[in-house]
Design brief:
The complex is a heterodimer.
Chain A: E1 3-9, H1 21-32, E2 36-42, E3 55-58, H2 63-67, H3 73-86, E4 89-93, H4 95-99, E5 102-104, E6 110-111, E7 120-122, E8 128-137, E9 140-148, E10 151-153, E11 161-165, E12 174-175, E13 177-179, E14 182-185, H5 191-194, H6 196-208, H7 218-236
Chain B: H1 2-23, H2 29-37, H3 41-46, E1 53-57, H4 62-75, E2 80-82, H5 90-99, H6 101-105, E3 111-115, H7 121-128, E4 132-135, H8 143-146, H9 149-159, E5 166-170, H10 174-182, E6 188-194, E7 216-222, E8 225-230, E9 233-237, H11 244-260, H12 267-275, E10 283-289, E11 292-298, H13 302-310, E12 318-322, E13 343-348, H14 352-360, E14 365-369, H15 373-384, E15 389-395, H16 397-406
Parallel strand pairs in B: 1-3, 1-4, 2-3, 4-5, 5-6, 6-7, 11-15, 12-13, 12-15, 13-14
Antiparallel strand pairs in B: 7-8, 8-9, 10-11
Chain lengths: 240, 415
């Protein structure tokens, strides 16, 4: 049977806010849909073949872990670039999203960035923490927590969604980045677990990459019931 | 003028403490009032007593290490003042000073042990100028409040220059080792840590093996428990609570005690003393109801929950996980590896739904989801009191306090 291959980039260090959990969430949702799934970790030896991946999560590093990729930018760029060319679905969160473009620090100094996408990030500004952040993606909203100090500029209409509550990119009232198979957001941690509609839209894309179809069932519905309660809990605790 | 303001703040703080103790809110109210009246209260107070002060800092293990240290010091004949209730902000420390002002002034105390919150540590250190300091670890902790671990490192880097005599830091924590190597410190530095390999499981943000050049107290794991070596001597460690993190807390306490107490105390005496300490409240405490034993395991953040889950040596009849408002951002619950659990009898607390969701995506079944931890534990008592059984309750701070109150215990009192 065709196996869907899912991976996390540097899960030990690009996981400041539990972004890598999205891998487990997506794998479970695909699996209970009847699809066969494998998961792997991408470490600095880049032994995983990026052209064989259906999904890659790039979580957020801390600032020192972001600086730590400076000496491996070239192989990292080659790896992520090959995944993008392959049509691998990518979820890039917070610092992981910034890394795909170009990053500057508070004094305008250039920080490690892959320069693969038109995302310009300046970090080191005022810290923005939002419990119950909300981003509207067309027909539905996603909820979660954001905690970052970045201002992110992207081309017009390249956002993931419109900010309803919180700061998102801290620019133009939008959050994240979206282009085809690339999904970027500042909602950190288990964004798929809290937002099953979002997870299912991504899961459908991941499955179709191997010509598979993804469908939800009663087991998904039970998980979704919990997700709804948890997301509502965060919204109720928004600072007034 | 400053003297008058200090005396006025002290008087108001003392009166607030009296009122607070009557209405059941006595732990920090006096400190809050004194600091509101006179923000320089701590520094002014410090000028009026000569007791040496030990700070205990770090992401995890402050209360346990401070408790071990106080016990070792008291066993050695010291009369110790400390913030046992875990009130580790400026208000909490000011409140402790106010409550004990007379004995402090009369030199009744011979040592102060204060656990200190990292976000406030530099300010408190500037005011109190401690003689000694232990820094336990830097872990990913309360990101919504402390932001990144690198920021916590900077907090310690800004604190340690105020320490006068001896700093003890974790040799396995790369950020802390870097901090004491590069900083201009007036105090000498020694270390504690794990001698063996396998430091990656300690939950540190950046772990590093210890090296032979580091002097201090080091733990090795043996089949029968833990050994501690210091200055070429070695001794078996008997701990109030089981787990590698408690062994390291013990090593930190012994290393600090070796510097701060009577220098004639050998490692044997210090380890013997440690063995007699009781667990800090909620850290491996057990309570008995009929034939049922309830073990409370406090967790604060992802590293502490992971370490406590991984440190379980015996299986329990029931497992309960409870979590509430203590951590505003529950994201980290999804980064924990729950595979050491087969089944969770109940999830509880205000954020029980997050626990249920995280466990569901980890393929761990649960018995029930009841946000009321007292009801969960009461039900267990009713069901199991007539049976020899062990019930392990993993609780965050407020849930732990709720369960302790159910067992009729006040904060700081252990059974």
């Amino acid at each position: 049977m065709t196996q869907l291959k899912l991976a996390a980039l540097f899960p030990a260090t690009f996981n400041l806010n539990a972004d890598v959990a999205n891998l487990r969430v997506l794998a479970k949702r695909l699996s209970i849909s009847g699809l066969t799934v494998s998961t792997e970790n991408v470490s600095s030896d880049f032994s995983v073949n990026p052209s064989d991946l259906d999904f890659l999560v790039i979580g957020s590093p801390s600032s020192s872990n972001l600086l730590g990729v400076a000496d491996m930018l070239k192989p990292l760029r080659t790896f992520v670039s090959a995944a993008i060319d392959n049509g691998t679905t990518i979820l890039a969160v917070n610092g992981g999203l910034h890394l795909l473009g170009e990053i500057t620090g508070t004094a305008g100094e250039k920080l490690p960035g892959l320069g693969l996408l038109p995302i310009q990030t300046r970090i080191g500004g005022k810290r923005m923490v939002t419990i119950g952040a909300e981003v509207e993606l067309g027909e539905y909203s996603i909820f979660g927590v954001e905690n970052h100090d970045a201002t992110v500029r992207i081309p017009d209409n390249a956002e993931l969604g419109r900010v309803v509550h919180g700061h998102g990119n801290n620019h133009s009232g939008v959050d994240g980045f979206r282009s085809g198979n690339i999904w970027g957001t500042h909602l950190h941690g288990p964004v798929f677990a809290l937002n099953p509609k979002f997870a299912d839209e991504v899961a459908t894309q991941v499955a179709s990459h191997r010509g598979q179809s993804y469908a939800t069932n009663a087991e998904h519905s039970e998980l979704d019931r919990l997700s709804e309660i948890a997301a509502k809990h965060l919204v109720e605790r928004r600072e007034k | 003028m400053r003297r008058l303001r200090f005396l006025f703040a002290l008087l108001l703080g003392y009166m607030a403490t009296l009122v607070g103790s009557v209405i059941g809110n006595g732990s920090v109210i006096g400190g809050r009032v004194a600091l509101a009246v006179f923000p320089g209260f701590l520094a002014a107070a410090r000028k009026k007593f000569a007791v040496p002060i030990i700070f205990v800092m770090g992401s995890n293990g402050k209360t346990t290490t401070a408790k071990y240290l106080v016990h070792i010091a008291e066993s050695a004949g010291e009369n110790v003042i400390n913030n046992a209730a875990g009130s580790n902000l400026p208000t909490g420390i000011a409140a402790v000073l106010i409550r004990n002002w007379r004995p402090l002034r009369k030199d009744i105390f011979s040592l102060a042990v204060f656990e200190v919150d990292e976000a406030y540590a530099a300010g408190i250190a500037a005011a109190l100028e401690p003689e000694f300091s232990v820094v336990l670890n830097i872990q990913v902790d309360q990101i919504y409040r402390l932001f990144e671990p690198e920021r916590v490192r900077d907090m310690f880097a800004n604190t340690l220059p105020f320490v006068k005599r001896q700093i003890v830091v974790n040799a396995n924590d790369a950020l802390l080792v870097e901090t004491v190597s590069g900083g201009e410190l007036q105090a000498r530095v020694s270390f504690f840590g794990l001698k063996d390999s396998g430091v990656s499981r300690l939950g540190l943000f950046k772990a590093t093996p210890s090296n032979n050049k580091q002097n201090g107290s080091f733990v090795t794991e043996a089949a029968t428990g833990y050994k501690l070596s210091r200055d070429g001597e070695s001794v078996n460690l008997r701990l109030p609570s089981d787990g590698i993190h408690y062994a390291l807390n013990g090593a930190a306490a012994i290393e600090m005690a070796a510097h701060a107490l009577d220098s004639s105390l050998g490692i044997d005496a210090l380890a013997e003393s440690l063995a007699g300490a009781s667990p800090a409240f909620g850290r491996g405490e057990t309570f008995v109801s009929g034939k049922a034993t309830f073990e409370i395991v406090l967790f604060k953040n992802r590293p502490s929950l992971q370490l406590n889950l991984d440190s379980q040596r015996n299986s329990a009849d029931t497992i309960v996980l409870a979590f509430d408002e203590y951590s505003q951002d529950p994201s980290w619950l999804f980064a924990v590896d729950y595979s050491s659990l087969d089944f969770v009898h109940a999830v509880s607390g205000e954020k029980s739904d997050f626990l249920e969701l995280a466990l569901a995506y980890s393929d761990i079944s649960i018995g029930k989801n009841d946000p009321d931890i007292k009801r969960v534990v009461s039900d267990l008592i009713a069901e199991y009191s007539d049976r020899e059984s062990l019930h392990r309750l993993f609780l965050d701070y407020d849930q732990m306090m709720a369960v302790r109150s159910l067992f009729g215990l006040q904060m700081g009192v252990t059974k």
